[in-house]
Amino acid sequence: MVQVNGNYLKLKAGYLFPEIGRRVKAFSTAHPDAPLIRLGIGDVTEPLPQACRDAMKIAIDAMGTAEGFHGYGPEQGYAWLREAIATHDFQSRGCAISADEIFVSDGSKCDSSNILDILGEGNRIAVTDPVYPVYVDSNVMAGRTGQAGDEGRYAGLSYLPISADNGFTAEIPSEPVDLIYLCFPNNPTGAVATKKQLTAWVDYARKNGALILFDAAYEAFIQDPELPHSIYEIDGARDCAIEFRSFSKNAGFTGTRCAFTVVPKGLKGKAANAEDVELWGLWNRRQSTKFNGVSYIIQRGAEAVYSAAGQQEVKGLVSFYMENASIIRKQLSSAGLTVYGGEHAPYVWIKTPDGMDSWGFFDHLLNNANVVGTPGSGFGAAGEGYFRLSAFNSRANVDDAMARIQAL
Ligand code: PLP
User: Fold this and answer.
1) Which one of 157, 167, 259, 390 is most buried, by most CB atoms within 10 A?
2) Domains 6-46+309-407 and 53-307 share a fold
3) Contact, 317 vs 301, CB < 8 A?
4) What is the pLDDT of residue 16?
5) How confident is the model at residue 25, as a pLDDT?
């Protein structure tokens, strides 16, 4: 009989969002008229920018003509989109990233998982705790961990706890690691990293021959001009970091799907025979073999993000969500809760009150305010005692949810 990939069997049963779904369903079945407000999952709610829709409509019409038809495109993405990304997102911020180092894809979730294809099995891997669960689960699926222990932590991973004590930015590990996942602005805590903090990571990585996988899916939400948007704003990062970016959260592409990964040329890893190997070549080979590119229509839509009109609209979307985050922060603080994040990220990270655990607070808000959030413990053992609310929602829902929590 066919064998399954046994690594999948190591995955902890209740992945966070299915468990939330189960509890919400049970509640809704018991209380069919309860007016639920969902501030849980990090999906955007506002419509796609007009500039993107216009560009996509033009592309659709072009596809209906012999001259404008596009079949398979380059697996790495069209040159015009890669150029626009390199110019606007990197060169304009002083990062020496060129268009051919940008690999356009259908999501940074997929890329941050697929990257393991080109990395060896023996790497010692560090993740923060709490963490975006995809980094951990993709390592489990790829057989890079042992079994989960009692707290749900997998053997073989180095967990770097982040909490109020260290400003929600992980400390440099005391044990040597080869692969480090960093996400700033952070999901779930909403924390950001300063240039100084990222410099310490880059220095560590260069000194130890480690690779940083830097997830900047939320960079557009940074408000303070001093904060870095890209790891490549740090000297030396080209030699030790891969960066993941996405159009999902800034331009509302969660359902449209477009993202990109930056792999600098000259960034190297070691082969088993200790020879240096360029990661760019491996990722290029991986993408050319296993991926057939993002649709022409969608790439035209993504290109329009960089037009003057697109930039204006994206700015409007980001301000809208950040105003939501600010309302959440203010209202929860005045309700006596301790809150973090939400200043440069669309997530507010809340200390649960009265020693309640994360799921206890989830049930409390669900039952008494009909508000759905995300228990911090679902992001890792060190998230216990915290709770995440997302600013991705309509203003009316945010106002309503906050009024209900105030009234508790
Ligand atoms: N990275 C982080 C940290 C995220 O929170 C998310 C989505 O919630 C993603 C990546 C996924 O992005 P994409 O829609 O490009 O797959």
Assistant:
1) 390
2) no
3) no
4) 80
5) 96
Query: CA 47, CA 63: separation in Å to the nearest integer?
Result: 24
Task: List pocket residues of ligand 1, CB cut-off 6 Å.
Answer: 42, 107-109, 132, 183, 187, 215, 217, 246, 248, 254, 259
Spell out, as residue ranges, where the chain has pLDDT lower than 70. 13-15
Ligand 1: which atom is nearest the Cα of residue 253?
14
Nearest CA to ligand 1 atom 9: 109
Q: Which helix (H) or strand (E) holds 331?
A: helix 308-334
Give the whole-angstrom CA distance, residue 179 versus residue 131: 15
Looking at the CA of residue 183, tell me the nearest atom of ligand 1.
3
**CATH match of 6-46+309-407 with 3.40.50.1980:** no
Taking domain 53-307, whether its CATH number is 3.40.640.10 is answered by yes
Give the ligand 1 atom nearest the CA of 254.
14
Q: Whose CA is nearest to atom 11 of ligand 1?
A: 109
- Tell me the C-alpha distance between 88 and 97, whole Å: 11
Distances (CA, A) of 326 to 92, 116, 226: 28, 37, 20
Prediction pTM value: 0.97
